[in-house]
Amino acid sequence: MGTDTNGDVLPEHKVTLRPVVGLTENLPRRDLEQITIQAIKIHRSLRDAADARYEEWRKSPPVTGCETVGPSRIAYVTAMIDMHAQQTVLSTLLDVLGHVPPVSVD
What we know:
Layout: E1 2-3, E2 9-10, H1 18-24, H2 29-59, H3 71-97
Antiparallel strand pairs: 1-2
Helix pairs in contact: 1-3, 2-3
């Protein structure tokens, strides 16, 4: 991370998914909000799945003498990749929408 002239911390770069912007920028606000709420729910689900895979990996016996980290760690890494990819989609949608819509806690 860098700093600006005021000493505030700035991200190195912000990832914006241009296809998401292009697909959503002319949608009615209500439709965009609905899509964003769905993206939030998907992100929460993927976060919970990643947490579960993490616990499975931590409880699994260590893999030794192999050229792999084992299936439980691979499942965890895959779940984290899915969650972070969805986070990028969600961040882009929130930027286009301009606010965080209220979402029920299921």
